[in-house]
Design goal:
Biased composition (Basic residues): 141-150
Order of helices and strands: EEEEHEHHEHHHEEEEHEHHHEE
Biased composition (Gly residues): 210-220
Number of helices: 10
Organism: Streptomyces nigrescens
Region (Disordered): 139-160, 196-269
GO molecular function: hydrolase activity
């Protein structure tokens, strides 16, 4: 199968690896040349066509699969980590991931049939989901108990941790890990601390691939940022609760104050992470979906404004007590609620809960006492004039 490959110059390529039956279309897997051999940043969805495309893409970049030295995973989602096990088996490459997402992978592998659905049924019932919606999960739960193997059991456990702020051991390159929780608890961006190829050859006598490819004039900013799903040019990444049947499951930094369903604050994490990325001021962003782009700071400002506007709208909706489900139904999405598919409604409720959690942390919303076994409701705090 052919592969859509872009040479970004300076020893960096992107390979568009398809995601079956998904409007995103593909994951942009990046290949980074190092003095020890090429390294992949993410691997793509575990699907035969995706695998064939990835292999063809590595070949189009001028390498064999067996040349691969390592795999850096931005986060644990299957369109990023799905093919990692196959790549490791075929090449012997190590896999690295932030410890918080490795913990998610470990829980997924250890899950027994029905455990995840038990959690989801309880979570959605507490959020006020109607009986008809929860009934479909109960039916799936009965089938799962009958012996169907839960998805994700074969996902690869990483061999190494990616530590925040770490300059990764990649000879000939300067690639630094930036912890950017929000989309997942262990999401990382990777900052290539080298001059952008468009800047032309370096003038300070340093060597390296950053000056390869010349031409195009100086770009503002420094280096290139592999942003995963954290920073995308035209999509707002999903920010929901950090899902963990055994606990709250998020970074330890968000561990204070009452909030719906636990103590972590994924939206707060995400907004803080956006500010961190903006301060890096990369010359170019190489995301995992859509296309490369410049002006990271401008895109960060757009995303922060989007979430501020959404939080303001939710405060207005919460003049009356609402369950997370009722709030999700009233929120604005990319289509009317009645047209949102079943599984996507679960995701929407998680996003509503993440925004609720942020408002509770800010002291702008509080939980209203609920009847025994009834769903939780939340209402805006009435501030004194």
């Amino acid at each position: 199968m052919g592969a859509q490959v872009i040479d970004h110059k300076g020893g960096v390529w992107s390979i568009a690896v398809p995601i079956p039956d998904n409007p995103l279309g593909h994951t942009l897997v990046h290949l980074l040349e190092t003095d020890r051999g090429p390294v992949l940043i993410d691997t793509g969805w575990d699907d035969p066509d995706s695998w064939d495309t990835l292999v063809a893409g590595v070949t189009a970049c001028g390498f064999a699969l067996t040349d691969l030295h390592g795999i850096l995973i931005t986060h644990h989602h299957p369109d990023h980590h799905g093919l990692s096990a196959k790549v490791r088996e075929a090449s012997g490459a190590w896999i690295a991931m932030h410890a918080a997402d490795t913990a998610v992978v470990r829980r997924t592998r250890a899950a027994v049939p029905g455990e995840w659905l038990d959690y989801l049924i309880t979570k959605l019932s507490t959020a006020g989901a109607p009986d008809a919606h929860v009934a479909r999960l109960r039916e799936a739960h009965a089938k799962r108990r009958s012996g169907h193997r839960p998805p994700g059991r074969e996902v690869a456990l990483p061999d190494r941790d990616i530590a925040p702020g770490e300059l990764l051991d990649l000879p000939g390159r300067r690639l630094r890990a930036i912890w950017t929780p929000g989309h997942t608890p262990g999401h990382v961006c990777l900052h290539l601390e080298e001059e952008h190829p468009a800047a032309g050859p370096r003038q300070d006598g340093e060597t390296g691939r950053g000056g390869d490819g010349g031409g195009g004039g100086q770009r503002p900013g420094f280096g290139r940022l592999f942003s995963g799903d954290h920073l995308l040019p035209g999509i707002t990444p999903h920010i929901g609760l950090y899902e963990d049947p055994d606990g709250d499951g998020g970074p330890t930094r968000s561990n204070e104050g009452e909030s719906p369903g636990g103590a972590t604050d994924p939206l707060g994490d995400y907004l803080d992470s956006l500010e961190r990325v903006a301060r890096l001021a990369p010359a170019e962003v190489l995301p995992a979906h859509q296309h490369a782009f410049t002006d990271a700071g401008g895109r960060v400002r757009e995303l922060i404004a989007h979430h501020e506007e959404r939080l303001s709208g939710l405060r207005a909706l919460l003049r009356e007590p609402l369950t997370p489900w009722e709030l999700a139904v009233r929120m604005e999405w990319n289509r009317p609620w009645e047209h949102i598919p079943f599984a996507s409604r679960n995701i929407a409720v998680s996003e509503a809960e993440a925004h609720l959690r942020r408002l509770v942390k800010l002291g702008q919303v509080e939980r209203v006492e609920r009847a025994t076994d009834g769903p939780a409701r939340y209402q805006a705090v009435q501030l004194n004039p």
